[in-house]
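Project channel, design review

CF: Before we commit to the Magnaporthiopsis poae constructs, I'd like one complete example in the thread so the newer folks can see what an input/output pair looks like. Taking Histone acetyltransferase type B catalytic subunit.
RD: sounds good, go ahead.
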Amino acid sequence: MAEADSNWSADANACLELSLVEPSADGFNTIARFNPSFTYPIFGDDERIFGYQDLRISLRYHVADMRPHLKVKYGKKFRSVGATEPTDIEGLLREHLPAVAFSNNRDFEDAIRQLPQDWVPPGEVVSEFDANDGGTFEVRRGSLTDLAVKQILNRIQILVLFFIEGGSLIDTEDSDCDRWDIYFLFHRSNRDGASGAFKYRFAGYSTVYKFFPLQRYPLGAKAEPRQDLELPAQEFPLSGLRSRSRISQFIILPNFQKTGSGSRLYRAIYENCLRDPHVIEVTVEDPNEAFDDMRDVTDLLMLRRKPEFTALKLNTEIRIPRQGAAPRGVVDEVKAEETRCLYRIAPRQFSRVLEMHLMSKLPDSVRPTLAEETDRPRPTKAETHEYDLWKLFVKQRLYRHNKELLSQLDRSERIDKLNETLGSVELEYARLVALADRRGPDMASTGKRKLEDDADGVSHPAKKTRVDDS
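CF: and here is what came back for Histone acetyltransferase type B catalytic subunit:
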């Protein structure tokens, strides 16, 4: 029976192929083909499809406006026996794709041929940067209340399930659509034989949600109480309220990865939020390791260009007592918080990037690196003291974050756990600082520059941290 089941069971990730196509003079060109990383949100935890032999599922996208077309082919289909039935492939995919994806092949091809040559993606251009092939990447921002933006998002949302583990879709019919900003990344090139017309290829996108905090912004002036305050009689625009912008979904298509486009899309989102006086903080929802790496490197390179940030230093005048409470003010806390608020970075992220930067400024004799330590110069007493201050600065944050856990341990165990975590943090920071130093010349530029790599290519060694650094 098990053998029979295996003959009718297919690996969903392997048999589902996504492709990007565009019309050409003699038919259609396939720009890229790739398989999903995950299909369990659609086909179940085992990512298997039952009831077919020689199964092929093709999900084609028009590379410009991302109009989808689904086609399911198979050699044989299992004949239902009682409650045992073949997987309803189209039925499951209808829950995540718009109705247009289930039109016939001719309708799909006719529709994409009829797209006007002067078609441009929806949204306003907020950033541009050069592509390695001579084209240009555009970052376009639009509101989910824009019907053209909503149409494209409905077509591509299934990519979240395919490429983001644990990802979920946005309800595009929800009443809070005005809280969502959608950032599209398109590759733009000159269209052959069409003067002034461009050819667009979809490369990725990100969604950003606005939260409206109740507490006062730390740097804002305290308002005097008013006796004549009245609620607005008409509809009140949320755009006039202070908000936190949270990056919720972030996808770069596989054929555009390793081009630097991910970091530039993130940077475009951040800089656009920074230009909005109502945005008080930019946060990220549940980032994975690859996104964390890209974000860390991009934030570090950006902040290194800011004088308020580079002015933050370890106070080497502070002495560390052998016993008693650890000293405060290893780094000026007021100036650090002012800088964080000025550049609207979330507290934990700012602390980590500041720790990386300060570590990178330690003397060679004590600075943690990934290189062999045989050639290190012998540290002076002052250099050792500076390193001890940096370690104390990091440990203070780790302790605050893990206070409940650490408070359950005795003093010696607590010290061991902090030292163990600190060692992992040092290795992680050394890797990220080295990565930032390699990418610095291109990433630091605000103009159009070519980027040769992207954080998607960073390897992620296993972490030994026992005390959480999150």
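RD: helpful, thanks. The longest helix spans residues 411-443.
CF: The chain has three domains: 1-115, 122-217+241-286, 301-457.
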